[in-house]
Amino acid sequence: MSDGNKTSGMGLIETITVVLVILKLFGLIKWGWILVLSLWLIHWAAILLTMAIVSVYDAIKLR
Fold first, then answer.
1. Considering the entire predicted model, what is its pTM?
2. How many domains are contained in the chain?
């Protein structure tokens, strides 16, 4: 039996980040590493910010 809720593979952000890293390693783009990894960093910052907002909201709601 297969579980229909399983996902595998990379999403759009991961794919673009891998492509940019490969381009950087082969010297095809001259961007800095922060710029190459910025999409991934922004993605995780948004997730952490969302988690923080939800946590604060729940803490205020429980008072």
1. 0.67
2. 1
